[in-house]
C-alpha cells in the first residue's frame, strides 16, 4: 500500500542540510508511489521550499515562527506534532543528526509510535520495506520491519543517495499558522565555536589523527593534507582526551559518525568505539607504526610506518600532481 510520508528538512544557517535530500530519497522508497510532504521549520524558511521539491518532495509545508529561529526540542516538536495532526502521514523521516537524535524520541513518545533510528539502508519498499541499522557499535547489522502503526525512521547522513536534482519539478507550498506556546527554553543568542573549513559530518574526505599524533602541533600536517584534499580533520577520543584537539573533532561511538569517500586514519589504533564512527567509510587508509594495529583490519590500504614521514610524502606527491 502506498504511504504519505512527512520528511523534515533540516536547515542550518539558512541552508538545507544534505541529509534532508537523502531523507526524501528514503521517503520515496517507503512511500511506494505515495505523496512526499517536505516540512521546513524556522523563522524565515519559505524561500527554501523549492529545493525540497527539486529533490523529490511533492509538496512542502513551512512553519515560520520567531521561536523556531533556533532549534529547541520543545518548539520543533510542537510544530511537527501540529503538522502531523493536520497531515496524518503514515510515515516520518528525519536525519540522524544531533537535531534528529534529540527530537525523534520525543516525537515518537508523543505519537506512541516505534522509532527505527540510524538507518543506513532500506531494502524493498512500501509495507515490505526492511530498515537496516548498525548495532553493537557497528559490529553487526539488524533488519527491522515495522509491522503496524506509523513508520518513523531516522537516517544516518551520507548513506542513502539523494535523488537527482530537478529544478523543473513543481509542487505547492503551504504555510499553516501553528501556535508555539509554553516553551521551557527560549534561545536568546547562539554563540558558535568557529570551526575552520569543511563540516566534518558531511566531508567527502576525512584525515583523522589519534594519540600517535602526539601533540597539538602534530595535527598540522594532517590539516595540510585535509586542506589539499578538500576535506576535514577528525580525531580519535585518545587524541581529544590528550588535549591535542577539540572534542568537536571526535569520531566514534561517543563522537561523530562519518561516512566519507576517503578516511585516512593516522596514529589511531582502531578501538571498537572508534570504528563505530568510521568503518562505513568507502575507502579507509590507515597509517600506523604497529603492523598489528586493529585499524588495519578495516583498512582498504594499510601503510606501516611513521605518520610524520608518511604524511609529508603524501602531501609532496599530491602537490606534484
Ligand atoms: P591509542 O590506542 O593509544 O593508539 C595510538 C596508535 O598510534 C597506536 O596504534 C600506535 O601504534 C600508533 N602510533 C604511535 N605513534 C605513531 C606514529 N608516529 N606514526 C604512526 N602511528 C603511530 N574512542 C574514539 O576514538 N571515539 C569514541 O567515540 C570513543 N568512545 C568511547 C566510549 C567508551 C564508553 C569508551 C570506554 C571508550 C571510547 N573510546 C572512543 C576510546 C577508545 O576505546 C580508545 O581508547 C581510543 O579510540 C584510542 O585512541 P587512539 O587510537 O588515538 O590511541
TrEMBL record:
Superkingdom to which the source organism belongs: Bacteria
A Pfam cross-reference name: ETF
Cofactor annotation comment: Binds 1 FAD per dimer.
Record-level Gene Ontology MF annotations: electron transfer activity; flavin adenine dinucleotide binding
InterPro entries, sorted: DHS-like_NAD/FAD-binding_dom, ETF_a/b_N, ETF_a/FixB, ETF_alpha_N, ETF_asu_C, ETF_asu_C_CS, Rossmann-like_a/b/a_fold
BP terms from Gene Ontology: fatty acid beta-oxidation using acyl-CoA dehydrogenase
PROSITE patterns with a match to the protein in the record: ETF_ALPHA (PS00696)
Keywords: Electron transport, FAD, Flavoprotein, Transport
Names of required cofactors: FAD
Residue stretches making up the Electron transfer flavoprotein alpha/beta-subunit N-terminal domain: 5-195
Annotated positions binding FAD: 211, 236-237, 250-254, 267-274, 288
UniProt cross-references to SMART domains, sorted A to Z: ETF
Family of the protein in this entry: Belongs to the ETF alpha-subunit/FixB family.
UniProt-recorded name of the protein: Electron transfer flavoprotein alpha subunit apoprotein
Amino acid at each position: 500500500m502506498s504511504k504519505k510520508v512527512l520528511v523534515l528538512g533540516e536547515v542550518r544557517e539558512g541552508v538545507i542540510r544534505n541529509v534532508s535530500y537523502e531523507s526524501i530519497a528514503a521517503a520515496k522508497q517507503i512511500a511506494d508511489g505515495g505523496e512526499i510532504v517536505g516540512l521546513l521549520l524556522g523563522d524565515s524558511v519559505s524561500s527554501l521550499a523549492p529545493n525540497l521539491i527539486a529533490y523529490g518532495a511533492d509538496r512542502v509545508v513551512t512553519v515560520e515562527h520567531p521561536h523556531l529561529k533556533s532549534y529547541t526540542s520543545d518548539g520543533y516538536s510542537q510544530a511537527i506534532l501540529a503538522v502531523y495532526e493536520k497531515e496524518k502521514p503514515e510515515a516520518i523521516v528525519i536525519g540522524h543528526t544531533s537535531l534528529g537524535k534529540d527530537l525523534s524520541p520525543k516525537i515518537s513518545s508523543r505519537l506512541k509510535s516505534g522509532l527505527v533510528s540510524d538507518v543506513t539502508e532500506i531494502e524493498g519498499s512500501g509495507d515490505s520495506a526492511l530498515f537496516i541499522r548498525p548495532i553493537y557499535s557497528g559490529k553487526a547489522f539488524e533488519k527491522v520491519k515495522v509491522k503496524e502503526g506509523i513508520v518513523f525512521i531516522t537516517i544516518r547522513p551520507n548513506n542513502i543517495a539523494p535523488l537527482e536534482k530537478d529544478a523543473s519539478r513543481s509542487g505547492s507550498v503551504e504555510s499553516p499558522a501553528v501556535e508555539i506556546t509554553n516553551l521551557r527554553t527560549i534561545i536568546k543568542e547562539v554563540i558558535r565555536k568557529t570551526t575552520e573549513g569543511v563540516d566534518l559530518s558531511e566531508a567527502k574526505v576525512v584525515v583523522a589523527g589519534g594519540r600517535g599524533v602526539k601533540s597539538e602541533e602534530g595535527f598540522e600536517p594532517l590539516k595540510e593534507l585535509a586542506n589539499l584534499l578538500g576535506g576535514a580533520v577528525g580525531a580519535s577520543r585518545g587524541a581529544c582526551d590528550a588535549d591535542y584537539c577539540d572534542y568537536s573533532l571526535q569520531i566514534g561511538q561517543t563522537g561523530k559518525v562519518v561516512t566519507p569517500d576517503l578516511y585516512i586514519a593516522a596514529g589511531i589504533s582502531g578501538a571498537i568505539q572508534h570504528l563505530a564512527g568510521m568503518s562505513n567509510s568507502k575507502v579507509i587508509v590507515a597509517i600506523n607504526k604497529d603492523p598489528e594495529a586493529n585499524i588495519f583490519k578495516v583498512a582498504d590500504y594499510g601503510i606501516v610506518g611513521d605518520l610524520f614521514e608518511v604524511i609529508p610524502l603524501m602531501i609532496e606527491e599530491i602537490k606534484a600532481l
